[in-house]
Design brief:
The structure is a single chain. It contains 22 helices and 5 strands. It starts with 11 loop residues before the first helix and ends with a helix. Strands 2-3-4-1-5 form a 5-stranded parallel beta sheet. The longest helix has 18 residues. The radius of gyration is 32 Å and the shape is elongated. By secondary structure, it is mainly α.
Length: 437
């Protein structure tokens, strides 16, 4: 567990040690925090709470390196509260008990405690429940930090007692501001060309702390008077994988983006999201399952070949593997994006299921039941059945619903793609059915 931070004096040993650049660049005031103006400008919600000195527990939700820890520290400094920081990764129940006990002592002395819990989503449900009585009675002001969607990862009871403030990934403009401050701290320009600067910002992917670490590496490793280009930087720096956790929200965000781009008939956007998932290391079988589902659910009978293409692409990928098989999946994405869309069958299926449950005891009409025994024949099984292929129109118009159930329409085809032809056939058969009544 990390020791409490309360703005205390550094030891002589700490003063003599060179701190990492990211720590030296940590904002000293809220005005120094970049990229979060929606929370920290004068009339923004978080700043209003700070100005009123009425601090309530809250959750900071945002990507790594966007200022969650810094905001919590500055809040403690501005309000005179004791600042206690723990990480849910390294702390357990015994650590929390000690924190709560010390906070209770401070409370009796008239000092409030801000407990900053990094990666609070890592605590299990029972551990999260343990915060509730201490938040409710004011022993602690809880500030939780999480990179995961609190709606999914935090107890509803804890969420109901905490506001949630969303931090944005840092924009290029925010990273430019950090770059200028780093150069001022170092007393010289970062030794990279303009393309190299863009490459570093792209590699940081909105993470301010990681961006500063990259800059520190460049300052430390570049030779005197050397100006690095992108190729030199790629050699110097280990390539960072995109921020992506296959069990976390980013996983579902990207598949949602792919699915909706396909539904919106935008092959370029769909290819982009596919590439994002592939480069992040997503399991291609998961992608193919979702694409196959899309072929039957969103394209449907507007293009019956879509499902065939999905299975074919899946087979191709399983035979070729990556990267050769990736092209088959990319081809499927383009096919699905450009195919006509219909949810006719999807709607019909969702419509018929509850009615099937309601009428589950009704027998089929006797004329469409086989009569393999004499008794079944005597009681009318199969009596009056007409074999449609032998009728004049190839259509008998007989009733196939239960006798005690009114005929219903579940499937209504759309005027798109192949379903236009299906609609023509259904309209024709409905016309014959009316004539035969």
């Amino acid at each position: 567990m990390k020791k409490a931070y309360n703005g205390g004096m550094e030891s002589l040993f700490e003063k003599n040690m060179q701190k990492p650049l990211a720590e030296r660049m940590r904002p000293k005031t809220f005005a120094d925090v970049v990229g979060q103006d929606h929370l920290l400008t004068e009339k923004a919600p978080l700043m209003r709470m700070i100005q009123s000195k009425k601090i309530a527990s809250f959750i900071l939700w945002g990507p790594p390196g966007t200022g969650k820890t810094t905001i919590a520290r500055l809040l403690a400094h501005e309000t005179g509260c004791h600042f206690e920081q723990i990480s849910a990764v390294f702390s357990g129940v015994s650590d929390l008990r000690k924190v709560f006990a010390e906070a209770q002592k401070r409370r009796k002395m008239g000092q409030a405690t801000i407990l900053f819990v990094d990666e609070i989503h890592r605590f299990n449900r029972a551990q999260q429940d343990g915060f509730l009585p201490y938040v409710e009675d004011g022993t602690i002001i809880l500030i939780g930090a999480t990179t995961e969607n609190p709606s999914f990862e935090l107890n509803s009871a804890l969420l109901s007692r905490c506001k949630v403030y969303v931090l944005n990934r840092l924009s290029d403009e925010a990273l430019d501001e950090i770059l200028a401050r780093v150069e001022a701290e170092m007393g010289r320009s970062v030794p990279v060309d303009s393309v190299g600067k863009a490459f570093l910002k792209n590699l940081a992917d909105g993470d301010g702390r990681y961006f500063i670490n990259l800059l520190e590496t460049v300052f430390n490793e570049a030779a005197e008077n050397e100006i690095l280009d992108q190729k030199s930087l790629e050699t110097l720096l280990q390539k960072r994988l995109p921020n992506y956790d296959k069990s976390a929200e980013g996983h579902y965000n990207l598949i949602s983006a792919l699915h909706k781009s396909l539904r919106g008939s935008d092959p370029d956007a769909a290819l982009y999201w596919l590439a994002r998932m592939v480069t992040a290391g997503e399991d291609m079988k998961y992608i193919l399952r979702r694409l196959t589902r899309f072929a039957s659910e969103d394209v449907g009978l507007a293009d019956p070949n879509a499902l065939v293409q999905a299975i074919s692409a899946w087979n191709s990928y399983e035979r070729l593997g990556s990267p050769e098989g990736d092209l088959a999946v990319a081809g499927l994405v383009v096919y699905l994006a450009t195919a006509p869309k219909s949810i006719g069958v999807y709607r019909a299926w969702n419509h018929v299921l509850p009615i099937a449950k309601q009428t589950g005891s009704l027998m089929p009409p006797k004329h469409i039941l086989n009569a393999p025994t004499k008794l079944m024949s005597e009681i009318g099984y199969g009596s009056g059945y007409q074999y449609d292929p032998e009728t004049k129109d190839g259509f008998s118009g007989q009733n196939y619903f239960p006798d005690d159930m009114e005929r219903k329409v579940f499937y209504t085809p759309f005027e798109r793609g192949f379903e236009r032809e299906i609609k023509k056939r259904l309209d024709y058969w409905n016309g014959l059915r009316k004539k035969k009544k």
